[in-house]
Amino acid sequence: MSIRVLLVDDETMVRAGLRLVLETERDIEVVGEAADGEQAVSAARALRPDVVLMDVRMPRMDGLTATGLILAADHGVKVVVLTTFDEDGYVHEALRLGASGFLLKVAPPERLVEAIRVAAGGEALLDPLVTRRVIAAFAGGVRARVTTAAPPAVDALTPRECEVLTMLARGMSNAEIAAALVVGDATVKTHVARVLMKLGLRDRVQAVIYAYEHGLVQPGS
Questions:
Q1: With contact defined as beta carbons under 8 Å apart, do 38 and 66 qualify?
Q2: How many CA atoms lie within 13 Å of 49's alpha carbon, on the beta-carbon side?
Q3: Nearest to 63 by CA among 94, 42, 103
Q4: For residues 195 and 163, what is the distance between their CA atoms, to the nearest angstrom?
Q5: Residues spanned by the domain of 59
Q6: What are the tens digits of pLDDT across the range 160-202?
Q7: What is the DSSP string of the chain?
Q8: Among 14, 43, 166, 189, which has the highest number of CB atoms less than 10 A from its own CB?
Q9: Strand order from edge to edge, sheet including 51-55
């Protein structure tokens, strides 16, 4: 069964390039395009795609507002934000709204395909090229309201799960965590799944936000 994708970008050439890449994949189908946020909301409602690739800066309605409206409709649609290095603030808010991660517009084709498959599978992808920068900037924004006392839910985590949560919050990928802990990828995935379940979080993006907001990881640590 194909992953149904909606492309949202105000630049025709960008949409054409994205379509060109995705149409070579047997398990991905581009079901529609939108040139601004208003069109994106309407298209998502009508087409019910599995994944929306969402640009941020667009006329009439920006991608951030569109992301909130699409996800609030709760049709099971996943949103991956397409971003550039100068849009950190937009990305933070998009993640809070429930976006399944973000991707650089200059990312290689295989990264784009991976992001779509990961999002469709119910997980989140943070582009490794910008994850640490975004996390650092986000952490700085919540520094004033974090508490040093761990929230009660963290008490349900085992020491190893706490360690994995900390590594997630530092922007480490599953492969990096596996190497640091000297375990297999499958073991890391199990730990991550248990962390998310015990804390009532949707994905690893929410885990990052949770860790910083509750003071489990300090900026620069």
A1: yes
A2: 29
A3: 94
A4: 10
A5: 3-129
A6: 999 999 888 877 778 889 999 999 989 998 999 999 999 988 7
A7: -PEEEEEE-S-HHHHHHHHHHHTT-TTEEEEEEESSHHHHHHHHHHH--SEEEEESS-SSS-HHHHHHHHHHT-SS-EEEEEE-TT-HHHHHHHHHHT--EEEETT--HHHHHHHHHHHHTT--EE-TTTHHHHHHHHHHHHGGG--SSPPGGGGGS-HHHHHHHHHHHTT--HHHHHHHHT--HHHHHHHHHHHHHHHT-SSHHHHHHHHHHTTSS-TT-
A8: 43
A9: 28-34, 3-8, 51-55, 78-83, 101-104, 125-126
In a domain, 219, yes or no: no
Whether 96 and 169 map to the same domain: the answer is no
Query: Residue 221 is encoded by which pair of tokens?
Result: 């640590």
Pair 184, 104 in one domain: no
Examine the domain organization and report whether 42 and 112 are in the same domain. Answer: yes
* Residue 147 pLDDT exceeds 50: no
Contacts of 65 (CB under 8 A, 6+ apart): 37
What local confidence, expressed as pLDDT, does residue 219 receive? 55
CATH at 43: 3.40.50.2300
Q: What are phi and psi of 166, to 5 degrees?
A: -60, -45
- Between 134 and 175, residue with greater pLDDT: 175
Which pLDDT does position 125 carry in this prediction? 72
Can you give the C-alpha Rg of the chain in angstroms? 17
Number of domains in the chain: 2
